[in-house]
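This week, think about what follows.
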Amino acid sequence: MQGTGPTTRVVLKDAERAMVEEVVYKVLENCPGQTEYRYLTFLKEHVDTPIGRIRETYESAEGQPVLLSNLPRFENVEHSKILALLIGQTVGNCVAYSDYNGSYITDIRATELSREKSAGTDLLAMHNDLAWASDVCRPRTLVLVPHMAEGVVPRTLLAPATEVVARLDPAAIEILRSPVFEARSGSSLGWKYERVRKMALLEEAAGKLVVRLNFSAFTPAAHLEGEQRAAAAAAHQQLHDAALAVGRVRGHAALQGEALIIPNDHCLHGRDPIDSGACRRLLLRSYVVPDSVVEHHGRTMISLER
C-alpha cells in the first residue's frame, strides 16, 4: 500500500532540471575519478546553488519532510552522488562522520556483507539518525536520492514529530519529556568505550518539537526502579508504536528522479520490508548540518566523540 507521502513537495520546472543536470555533469568533468570530498569542494568553490526555492521551502516546512521531483536521472552512480551532495549543499552543509562511516555519501541497499541495520531486508524500525549525538555533531537533515529503484520499491516511512505526539497519551508525553532515558552509544563504532548520556526523548527547540528515537540505543535510566522503570518502558514503546503508525500513513516509495529531504530532529523515518527478489534499489544518503556546526569543528569531517 502506498502512503500519502510528504505534504510538502517541490516539482522542478524543466529548465531547473536542466540546470541541475548541467551542474552535476560539470562537477564530474572537472573532478574525474576523484573523491566525494573533491566533488563537495568543487561545489562549494565554483558552483552557486541553482535553485534557491528548495531551501526556502524546506525552511518553511515546519519540521515536515520535503519531496523533490522532476530531478535529472543518471546512469552513472557518481553523477547521482554529486546530485545528493548538491541537494545537501542547497539546504545546508554536507558532512562526513569520522567515527560512523567516514564518507560524505552512504549507499543504502540490501547486502549480506553490511552490519548496518539499513542494509537488511526486514522492516527498518522508525528512528532518527544518530539521535543520541550532541548538537555539535548530530545530522540535522538527511537527503535521500534513489540511484536505482526498480520493481517493488519499498516505502520510506516518514513520521513528523507533531503527528506522532498527537497519538500519545498525556502521561506518556510527560515521561518522554523527562531526562529519564539513557542513550548508550559507541559500542559498534570506532570508540574504545561506550558512552552513556541521560536524555529526554521529547523536547522543544526553536519552537519546534524534537523527538529522539534510535533502535535500541535508548533505555530507561539505570536509577529507575519498579513502577518508574515500567512507566518509562511503556512510554518508550508507545513512542515506537505511534511513530510506526504515522510512518505507514506517510510512507513514500522514492523513485529515480525524486529526492527526500528529511529534518532529522523533527521527523522519524524507517522503511518497509524489502523483497530482494522483486526489487533493485540503491539509495544514496548525505548528512547535512547548519553553518554553526561546521564553524564549531572547522572542517566538514565531524567526529561523533565531540
Observations:
- The two ends are 42 Å apart (CA to CA).
